[in-house]
């Protein structure tokens, strides 16, 4: 049985299909049709809702795509939809701002925008254009009415008003504490079952008992099996309540990221040590996706165009794999074998990712895609090179979108190490890079484009590391 708050109503569900998305639960089970389905793939934001949970004694509000969120993820949280914002016949300030600024045109996407604005208002003290762009990047308006929506964001953030959620916060926290996840919880319906462990130990035991189960963290990719391909997931183990796997800790030399930690929670520490990693995370899908998606899922997915693996490979990161009571550490570059094939064994799961802290190398990351936000890479490149006394002493270059797996450019690295850091060395390395990859052509890019872009990114790395930074007015992570 799962328990959660639907606004202020306690819901207890013990007979729901674990494949049921929050979107369909709202619309079909509860007939709350304010939340809309636009794409069922997490691209448009029309289905955005807000989840609140207790973090450090306060409520944390985050927007998510309800079309990619299974009902098991609601356990122990508060679900807020567009119907819940109006209070005592008065529109919420975010709704009123949309009306005042004429932000609603055809209106279909409006509930999703309102919920993103609601989460933005809860997480900011004043209007900030960059933060607003990030909050709204996952909401697409087909009527191209973005200026009035930004005006609405400005009004709602600058004239922030206490609302019913603020007034009820203490009571909400108390009620959520009373239903916080406990071990041995499961949800079943239609002969399907979801297990909701709360510790790594419980997860390891469950996975050994059910090695055929699907591991579900953020679900931003796995949910597509249900919503797009209409395939049933008979057994699911939900990782979102495993406390140890949702933490980011530091040692003197390492950043340790729990595999079920949402990408949003990884940003601060990675941006602190690797600014380019932080900049690229801002372009990783949308905020709704980052609020749920995890590094563990992005790695386990084994997609050749996942954004994080090339960066982690260039940084010589490791993954800790666990099977029962046994654990092993492997270099992340050794995790990938072939397209969608990895070294992970039956009932083995990624427990954490270990990222070395910076030494003397210079790390830069680049993402080339058709649009800035909410898009998949045509080419993703990460370069981590050490220069000493004018010569290259170490080089780790990794690329996504260039092969069946995220992969190092070994010939290119060999052409760099031991050589003078010069334009002629770069040109030699670019020629070697052509031997490292035989990319494919698809709807994102041709093989010739990918090859040239990869070489040009190495040239750009050279320019950025040898030029006066004050003269470089663009960065490829933000302006491709």
Care to describe what's here?
This protein has 480 residues and is an alpha+beta fold. The protein has 17 helices and 20 strands. The chain has helices at residues 22-29, 93-100, 110-122, 129-136, 146-158, 164-167, 169-178, 200-209, 223-227, 267-273, 275-281, 287-290, 295-300, 308-314, 410-416, 423-436, 447-466, and strands at 2-6, 9-13, 48-55, 58-65, 78-80, 185-189, 192-196, 214-216, 235-238, 248-250, 254-258, 318-323, 326-331, 336-338, 341-342, 349-356, 362-368, 379-388, 391-400, 407-408. The strands form five sheets. Strands 2-1-5-3-4 form a five-stranded mixed β-sheet. Strands 10-11-16-12-13 form a five-stranded antiparallel β-sheet. Strand 1 and strand 2 form a beta hairpin. The longest helix has 20 residues, at 447-466. The protein is globular.
Q: Which tags fit this structure?
A:
480 residues; alpha+beta; five-stranded antiparallel beta sheet; 20 strands
Number of helices: 17
The counted number of beta strands is 20
Helix content: 25-40%
Low-confidence spans: pLDDT under 50, at least 5 residues?
A: 476-480
Helices and strands: which structural class?
Answer: alpha+beta
β-strand percent reads: 15-25%
Specify the biggest β-sheet. 5 strands, mixed
Q: How far is the N terminus from the C terminus? A: 47 Å
| Oligomer class | single chain
The rough form would be described as: globular
**Strand arrangement across the biggest beta sheet:** 2-1-5-3-4
Mean pLDDT: 95
CA radius of gyration is 23 Å
